[in-house]
Design brief:
about 35% strand; alpha+beta; Glyas_Bleomycin-R_OHBP_Dase; 8-stranded mixed barrel; 5-stranded mixed beta sheet; 2,3-Dihydroxybiphenyl 1,2-Dioxygenase, domain 1; Glyoxalase-like domain-containing protein; 15 strands; single chain; Glyoxalase-like_dom; globular
Length: about 280
């Protein structure tokens, strides 16, 4: 169903208080950063780097970090657009995972929708619903050494209840005009263990509702996703760890995001040093 089409939403980067209040020159030289606001629970705040294609980077700072929170290698979110709902999307994913249960050896499923929100500096009340990936039987999946800070090897979903344009103001030229000419997310790479590469392909088929682009080769598989606010598209790339450097990255950072490519109208594409912001 077209209403169930999956789109990239945003990448979450955690910053210390110092990094948050005085972002690095690399960030300010390349991007326009806007204030987001404080989340409804009062525990965190954010700033946004919004792109014309409707995707964005979220710079998150904990005002008071929950004891249960474990710093993780970097969360990223997907979404669907109205009239699709969080409930519709969860049903789709869970059914897909159940239909491929014999190949779902990563032990991943998705939570019931969780309500969330924040208040912008202008006073707008934003509301959304989150679907979180959950891992009920982690020990039978991938080795613990590949999850030093908790599992984020599957994305979460952020579904807007209020109008998306309030949360992601990609219609405002002053917000999306970046010094680097950045226009959106062209590629997001996840590094995964070599012996679980096919398992992750199967998982992401269920999550995005589509097969990877052909051909799969050299331990790389790509899923193409249309951008939520433009005709552009980007890819989620699953890459199997094949070197000592790859294995070291998995042990230190964990399974998850290893590379982010930004699309630019000035310079084509450029790499974002994402590992610098993954605690």
């Amino acid at each position: 169903m077209s209403s169930q089409q999956v789109y990239p939403d945003h990448l979450l980067l955690q910053l210390s208080r110092t990094q948050f209040e005085a972002p690095s020159a690399w960030l300010t030289d390349h991007f326009t950063i806007i204030e987001g606001g404080t989340h409804a629970n009062g525990l965190s705040r954010n700033k946004l780097i919004v792109f014309p294609d409707g995707t964005y980077l979220e710079l998150l700072n904990w005002i008071e970090k929950p004891e249960s929170w474990r710093d993780r290698p970097g969360d990223f979110a997907l979404t669907t657009l109205k009239p699709s709902t969080a409930e519709d999307n969860r049903d789709r994913i869970v059914k897909a995972l159940e239909s491929r249960s014999e190949r779902n050896d990563l032990e991943v499923t998705y939570s019931q929708p969780i309500e969330g929100g924040r208040k912008t500096l202008r006073g707008d009340e934003l509301r959304w619903k989150i679907l979180k990936a959950t891992y009920p039987n982690t020990r039978s999946a991938t080795p613990e050494k590949y999850h030093p800070r908790g599992r984020t090897d599957a994305p979460f979903f952020c579904h807007d209840v209020t109008d998306r344009i309030l949360r992601v103001p990609f219609n405002l030229p002053s917000v999306v005009d970046h010094p680097s000419g950045a226009t959106g997310i062209a590629g997001l790479e996840l590094l995964v263990p070599k012996d679980k590469w096919e398992s992750y392909i199967n998982l992401y088929i269920c999550i995005v509702g589509a097969s990877p682009l052909l051909p799969k080769k050299h331990g790389v598989a790509e899923f193409e996703l249309k951008s939520p606010g433009s005709l552009d598209s980007g890819v989620i790339r699953l890459r199997a760890a094949t070197s000592e450097d790859d294995e070291r990255y998995l042990r230190v950072k964990g399974i998850g995001i290893s590379s982010l490519i930004i699309r630019s109208r000035k310079i084509g594409e450029f790499s974002f040093p994402v590992s610098d912001y993954l605690h």
